[in-house]
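User: Fold this, then the next.

Assistant: Folding the first:
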Amino acid sequence: MTKKSFSVGLAIFLFCGLFFQSACFAGNKPDSKFGGVQIGVITYSFRSMPDQSIGAILDYTVQSGISSVELMGAAVESYAGIPDTKDKEALKEWRKRVTMDKFEPIRHMFEKRGVKIDILKLGRENWSDEEIDYAFKVCKTLGARGLSTEISEKAAKRFAPFAEKYNLHIIFHNHLQPADPNFSFDKILSYSPMIMLNFDAGHYFGATGLDPADLIQRLHGRIASVHIKDKTGPNAPDPNKNRTFGQGQTPIAGILQLIQKNKWPITCDIELEYPVPENSDAVKEVKKCLEYCRNFLL
C-alpha cells in the first residue's frame, strides 16, 4: 500500500466513524431514528454491566447512541426503594403503599438525556390486582405507552381490564410459543384492543424458521415493538442459537426495511443475547448492533 492510498483509506475510515457518531447524537443527545425507523434497546441487554442502577443504565443507553428504551422494571423499583427481599407479601405491601413521586425523577432523568422511556417491562400475571394497578400507575408516571410482559392467554385475560382502565397498552412478548401449532397471536389479541405485541422476531425465526416479516405485514397494526436479534433457524446444524449480528440467519434487513417502507410506528429494539466477547462489553456490542441496523435504513 502506498503512503497516499493509506492516507485516503484512513480519511475514509475516520469520516465514516464521525458520520456514525453524528448520526447517533444530536446536540449531545442520542438520536437513533434512522430513515423514519426508531431503533431502541431493551435494557436487559446491559445485564452483564457491573452497575445495574437506573443512572448507570441510562449512561449505558446514551453511550450506545440510543434514544429509546424498553426499560426493565427491576432498576426502576430499586430506585424507588423496594425492599431487598424475596418475601412476596412484603413486596406486595410495598407496591400497594409506595407513592408515584418516588418514580417521577426517573422520567425527568431520561428526558434530560434525550432518551424516551417507550415501554416499561413490569408485572406478572400472578400479581395481585393492587400490584397490577401499581404497575400501570408507574407506567403512566414514566410516560411510557404501555407495560410489557410475557405472552399467554391467562395474562391477556388478567391485564386487559387494567390496560383499558388506564388507557395504556399491555404489550406481550413471545419466546418459542409460535412453534406450538395450538398457539395463536390472534387469540391473544382478541381479548382487548389495548393488547399489543412486543414481537420477538429472533425467537420467532429461531423456533419456526418462518420469515418474521410475513407476520409483521399481517399484524402490523397490533405490534408496538419488535425485538431485533440474530439467530440460526430450526433446521441449522446449530439450531435456534444467538449469533453476533450479521452471523445468524434472521432476516433483519427485510424486517427493518418493511417497517421503513410502510412507515409503521413500530419501534425496533435491539436485544443483546449473544455472548459478549472477552475484549468487549455490552455497551460496545449494542453500539455495533445499532450500526448494523442503521446500515439497512440509510
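Now the next one, as you asked:
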Amino acid sequence: MSGLHVDSVRKHFRFRQVLSDVFISCKKGEVIGLLGRNGSGKSTLLKIIFGSLAAENRFIAIDDIPKNGLFESRGLIGYLPQESFLPGHIKIKSIVSLYCDRNQAAILFDHDLVKPFLGKKSRELSGGERRMIEVLIMIYSTASYLLFDEPFNGIAPIYIEKIKLLIQEHAVKKGFIVTDHDYANILAISSRVIMLHDGAVKKIEGLNDLVDLGYLPEKYDIELEKITFT
C-alpha cells in the first residue's frame, strides 16, 4: 500500500484514554484535514505519527515499510508543532540554511514571503511572522509527508491565503495532514476531512456530520454549506 499508513494507535494519560485504535492514511497528492475539539488528541496523534511521543500501541508504515521511531522516519515525515521551533538568537537566513538543503534554501532566499526577514533574528519577528517562516521551511523540506499542527495560528489573513495556495500546490508531490482551530481554512484546502471524536476517527462527508458530532452549532455560516469534500 503506497503512502503513509497509521494504524492501531492507542494512547492514554493517567486514567483517560485519549486515542483508541486510531487509523489514518495519507497519500501524496492528498491534504487530510484533521478536526476535533480541544483535548480530543489531535496534537497527540501527530506527535505519535512523527515519533516524538510514545504510545501504548502504534503501527506506522510508509509505502509498506514499517517505521518504528523518529530516526527511521527522518527525512520522510516532517512535523510542524504548535510551539515555535526557530532559535531566537539566529538570523532567518542562517535558520533556513540550517533546516534546508542548498536547493531548498536558494528557493526560500528568493521567496517573497521570506526575503524581507532574512537579515533579522527570529526573536525580532512577530509571532505570526515566525509562524509563516516555519510553515514555509516545512513546505519546502524534503519530507514526503507533512504534519501541520495549527499552521495558521497568528498569521495575517493575507498571508494565510498565500500559504493555503502553497500547501495545495505542493500537495501534488507531498501528502499533508493538517489540523487547526480555524476549521474554515482546513475545509477549504482539504481533499478529505476526518475528525477525532471520543478517541476514534470519524469520516466527515459534509458539514452536517460536524453538526451531528457536536463540532459545529446548528447555525453555521451559510457560505460553508457550499464546501464539499472529495
